[in-house]
Write a structure and sequence with these properties.
Distance between the termini: 75 Å
Radius of gyration: 23 Å
Structural class: mainly beta
Strand content: over 45%
Mean pLDDT: 86
Number of helices: 2
Shape: globular
Low-confidence stretches: 4-20
Largest sheet: 8 strands, mixed
Strand order of the largest sheet: 5-6-2-1-15-14-11-12
Number of strands: 15
């Protein structure tokens, strides 16, 4: 009886120890970019900061909970949780973060150092930093790329001053489905589907390019599926 009790107690201790264990997250890499946005037909231009990170956690990827972006000098603080963060897969690497870190009125976030912190459900954390440079030039609405629809629902036209443009397709909930790089001119949606770039449940798209003159991305959209 005593031996059985000791054996059960030993198992319980091991289970409790396993349940209480926690490893801190590992922050492998951070990608950040300032983006300017414009809605089709509008003259308004606003800025958002994109911050993505490649991170790991020995206790499971779902254990990663909060991402904080902080500029202490300017007293700025943004947070996204596991339910609202963006997730992207790129060549086998998983990236999480947020693409809508923005000021109250969409002004340009101040340049300087920003702390990026990721925490797990136990409060363990990993931290790194990014630097946001001074914006070289604020774009006007006419500087953004455009998408023009044609009478053929399977054809749309890219109008852009840049050779390389990214078309991003989204479903009805706003989830990113796929992205496609294209030069200005006609794009055939049927061909994208045939090449497994696009599925039929897409509902909207955005077009963007990176401007060296501005030092930021220019994003136009959303364009709703016809």
């Amino acid at each position: 009886m005593n031996r059985r009790f000791l054996a059960v107690a030993a198992v319980l201790i091991l289970l409790l120890a396993a349940g209480c264990g926690n490893s801190p997250p590992e922050l492998n890499q951070i990608y950040s970019q300032l983006n300017f946005l414009n809605e089709p037909g509008s003259e308004r231009v606003w800025a958002e900061l994109l911050v993505l990170m490649n991170a790991d956690d020995e206790d499971g990827y779902d254990n990663l909970e909060f991402i904080h972006v902080i500029n202490e000098k300017q007293q700025l603080f943004w947070t996204v949780d596991s339910d609202s963060r963006s997730e992207r897969d790129n060549r086998g690497m998983k990236w999480i973060g947020g693409q809508r870190f923005m000021m109250t009125e969409g002004e340009i976030p101040p340049p300087g150092e920003y702390r990026v912190i990721i925490t797990d459900k136990a409060g363990e954390r990993a931290e790194d930093g990014i630097f946001l440079p001074i914006v070289k030039e604020i774009p006007a609405a006419e500087d953004f790329p455009e998408i023009a629809f044609t009478e053929d629902d399977n054809i749309f036209i890219i109008k852009s001053a840049e050779k390389r443009n990214i078309i991003s397709f989204y479903d009805s909930a706003g989830k990113l489905l796929s992205a496609y790089a294209s030069t200005p001119g006609e794009v055939n949606i049927r061909a994208l589907k045939e090449n497994d770039i696009l599925t039929d449940n897409w509902r909207s798209m955005r077009i963007s390019f990176y401007s060296d003159a501005t030092g930021a991305g220019l994003i136009s959209g959303p364009y709703q599926r016809r």
